[in-house]
Design goal:
By secondary structure, this protein is mostly helical. Helices cover 98% and strands 0% of the residues. One of its GO terms (molecular function) is Hsp70 protein binding.
């Protein structure tokens, strides 16, 4: 009977230590939560400001990207035209030479 009592006291003591450990962990987590809430509250105006700026810049960035794309298309077209031009002049020369030969 005394041994059962001592085992029960040991178990209760052990469970109490676990309980107090959990309470300390809970207290630590509540403190961290409070600190994080404070940080989030401090950062909220900056995030809203950045969001506002990004919304204002977005159309300009899209326009710049579109301009770059159009410029690339124009460069590609110019390169093709340059290639065709030299090819066309060769064709024109060949046609003129053929016409000259046909006349003579």
């Amino acid at each position: 009977m005394i041994q059962d009592w001592e085992e029960t006291v040991t178990k209760v003591t052990y469970e109490r230590e676990i309980f107090y450990g959990h309470l300390q962990e809970l207290d630590r987590l509540q403190n961290e939560n409070t600190q994080l809430s404070t940080i989030v509250s401090s950062l909220e105006p900056f995030v809203k400001s950045l969001n506002s700026v990004s919304q204002r810049l977005s159309p300009m960035l899209l326009a710049a990207a579109k301009d770059r794309e159009q410029n690339q298309v124009m460069r590609d077209l110019m390169n093709k035209i340059s290639g065709i031009e030299s090819d066309s002049s060769k064709r024109l020369e060949a046609i003129q030479e053929l016409e000259y030969r046909l006349k003579t």
